[in-house]
What does this fold into?
Amino acid sequence: MALSDFLLMRNELLLTLIAIIIVVAELAFSPQKQHKIVSMTLWLFFAITIAGFIPAAKGVLFGGMFHNSELTILMKNILNIAVLIVFIQSYSWIKKPENNYKIAEYFLLIVSTLIGMNFMISSGDFLMFYLGLELATIPVAALAAYDRYKNKSAEAGVKLILSSALSSAILLYGISMIYGSTGSIYFAEVVPRISSNPLQTLAFIFFFAGMAFKISLVPFHLWAADVYEGAPINITSYLSVVSKGAAVFIFTIILFTVFSPVMAMWKDVLYIISILTMTVGNLFALRQQNMKRFLAFSSIAQAGFILLGIIDGSQFGMTSVIYFVLIYVFSNLGAFGVVAAISNVTGKETMSDYNGFYRTNPKLSLVMMLSLFSLAGIPPVAGFFGKFFLFASAAHQGYYWLVFIAVLNATISLYYYLMPVKAMFINKSDSPIVFFRSDGMTRLGLLICVAGMVVVGFASAIYEYIRMLSFGG
Amino acid sequence: MIDFSYTILIPLIPFFMFVFLGLAGWKFKPMVSGILGTTGLFVAALLSYYTAFEYFFHTEKILGAYQKLTGFNTVWLQLTDKLHIDLGVLLDPISVMMLVVITTVSFMVHLYSLGYMKGDTGFVRFYSFLSLFSFSMLGLVVATNIFQMYIFWELVGVSSYLLISYYYDKPTAVAAGKKAFIVTRFADLGFLIGILLLSWLTGTFDFKTLTGAHSPVITQGAGVAFMGLSLMTWSLILVFIGGAGKSAMFPLHIWLPDAMEGPTPVSALIHAATMVVAGVYMVARLFPIYFMAPGAGAGLEVVAYVGAFTSLFAAVIACTQFDIKRVLAYSTMSQIGYMMLALGVSGYGGHEGLGFMASMFHLFTHAMFKALLFLGAGAIIHAVHSNVMQDMGGLRKYLPITHITFLIACLTIAGVPPFSAFWSKDEILAAAFHHNKLLFLVEYIVAGLTAFYMFRLYFNVFWGKEKQYHHTPHEAPFTMTIPLMILAVASIFTGFIPFSKLVTSDGVAFASETEMMIAIPSVVIGLLGIGIAWLLYKKESSLPDRIAAGLGGFHKWAYNKFYFDEIYLFVTKKLIFARISRPIAWFDRHIVDGSMNGIAWVTTTTSEKIKGLQSGQLQQYGFVFISGAIILALVFGYLLIF
It folds into this structure.
């Protein structure tokens, strides 16, 4: 292996380097100085995010197990940006005294999962894919239990690890069937041997169930609400944005490449699951009073919408999926950012606590409103364009009924997305949350989100770029 | 080739001023914000002059014709391979001319408002809105395609709404703003349908393609007929409806007089020089289509007759009004009618395009002298704190500068040589004369009426008996008088600009000479109008009232603006609201809302019923997970086997 080959894994290696630096720093710094790890990691991660935009080599490593292309680099960059925002948003939370002894833990675990996701996206065979997936999942369970002395957080960790063990088992079962029937685990070699015989159909269903767990599609979603609610809020936002985004990316790639011979079949599966996910996600989100749980269920419904883009199966579909995930990163992190800011200062997480919030904190309310508008798909925020292209791609393939149901669901979602807005702007409260000035980092994080929500929608260059890199059958 | 990409700055500078003043203006002293806004417009004006100079004197002509240049362009929305919406800057004689007009008048108004609006609580808001309006208007005239024009067209509508209802605590101002917005918005519906029809017929939004030599217009849409006119003609008429709304053409004129509720500088900017000529500009922009599209001559006929009728109609009303700003408003309508008429009677290319050239020429001169009239009126109102003529009289002693500049403007609009409007109006009359004698006659009479009502205003305000003033009227501060003087100079000399060499229908220069046969009678009727006004109003007498009484019903009709507001109210309230809107509202409330509420009920009930699924028990989650996978497998196994 030539030295230049390592450059193909640039992002992965740099992340590994950060992980090592964090471990060393934790050992080297005295307990009083642990908090320095926060700024250090932020700066390092910022550097990596920037470095991700340097054009990189394309190629294949390890005999086809790992491959790197402009598309995978784009996906990794999106994840990097998302994680950077999560880090910025968790700045004030992680610096709280009670977290002092486990600062390094937080960053180390997140960076590890990110390495896993990177390998997963770049994987060229099922083994690398599975390793990446596990690396991206197991540390998250530890993260969910980050506040381990809080019952809910501990419960979240246990629930996540047990459920994901189950899903991994099923997924592996599916992969083993594919191996058994095709004699290979390399994507490129598997493709020509895939057909819709019963065994491979079963294999696909099992593989699908495993992935559906990660993306929290109904009926494989039940873990999500409990885990999202139990985990500390910054980790919830990480889970619902970055983890989900990475899983959507690799899911799309594998469907479009490995399972392209049975496209007709997986389109049927997605059709059913998409309707189920949108509808059930919405029906549950309607009832939520806890803001974290509310965003969790809404993110389940969002996953249902994403399937509309995947089901298209063409270049247009993949473009709309990646574009939507990019917008979703900014919108959802914006919403989570506000919820986190409020929760950090006041500890309040219920929707009724938000009554009259606009009068006391107009700026945060406006950010929240923009984010919710973007999630609901109201123009002119980017979310509208994201959803528009998703719907257009499904309509493009003639799935008019699916689009119709999606539009109905989008209308229902409008209702619950506007509930917090109504609480903040219209409802009056005798004891609203008092005015507080959020710290610079929180504001920076929210500013990036708002900028993203505005710019991504209007800069057609971004969409064109994604379209150039996308592919499809 | 000269690089014109910097022209994008001309609209962008006011835009940044708007954003900056809107967001951060309150941090400065009001006057600082005002000066910042004014400076922005000053820079934009300098850039426009430079652009005009470079464009007219340094760009290469092809076959003697000025070319349509794209200074800047970016594709904004790619709808299909061919159809896309661009945002950019198109430079051709008329857009360059409009850049000069808008930035000049806007700069004058900015400067003037420093004095006029001084001490007003919303001073910063006023300046940020002024900048927004300037940005919208500049974006409109440099539009490279009809859709960009539409976007800025609506922005112009919004910003004029904001400016008209600037005194938002005054109910009449709010009502006037709403009226202006709704009426023009209603007309814009026609514009939008026209755009859609036009782009459907031709497959493009782009002006260059549409009006070029190989325009798809020539071949498309000729055959299909609806009510005796081709679809192309319909699209052009619909587009013209939009223009008629913005330019206050009959019968969509009702908003303009009310819009005088806005601050006077706003009236000078919006209702004299810029927004109200947007309709004229649009027809001029699409003129080759209006002229060349097969069977579209009917479109031009409509333009000509609407213009002529409006100019007569408005001139008659102007003779009876007492509010000086309303007189000016009706005068504006009348003058825009002139411009529309000139376009309507114009041919294409060379001397045939005399009407086109005359229309643009008059647009230019009118912008200068009408802005001057409005700003002068502002200085008068500033001095006596009233809008009505009865409260004024003998002001020439107190307001010497205003008096002289106002007199110059009145002489200009009356068409007295050598002031600018003499030249431009003369060209219009000549164009009308060679095309249609009836229209010529109408315009000829209007010329006399114009001179009459302007000097009626002039004598009433500056001569006659002095009234009891609360305090002695005093001349306005220099920030207000300097714009007056500059515009007065412009009113005198802009008539000497050789428009037939610069701004013509096909870009090729032609020679136009003053036709004595038309010029002399038009001066005569102008002087006649002035003379009658002199007789009636120089000294206060009961003669005007007796004449008004003698005219009886007709005067009352004209004084009440021919009851058009009442007709509109009757149609909207009694007919549309009562007969159409109410039943629809009932349907909406009971049937539509009812079914929506039904859906909401179903949704919440289902949601209530299925909440047991989310029990929090991990065993159950696992069970659902496995069952889900198995059910999927069964379903697809079943599908596979059968």
Remarks:
- Chain A has a mean pLDDT of 88.
- Chain A has one domain: 3-472.
- The interface with chain B takes residues 158-159, 162-163, 166-167, 170, 196, 198, 201-202, 205-206, 208-209, 213, 219-220, 222-223, 225-226, 265, 268-269, 272, 280, 282-284, 286-287, 412, 415, 460 of chain A (CB under 8 Å).
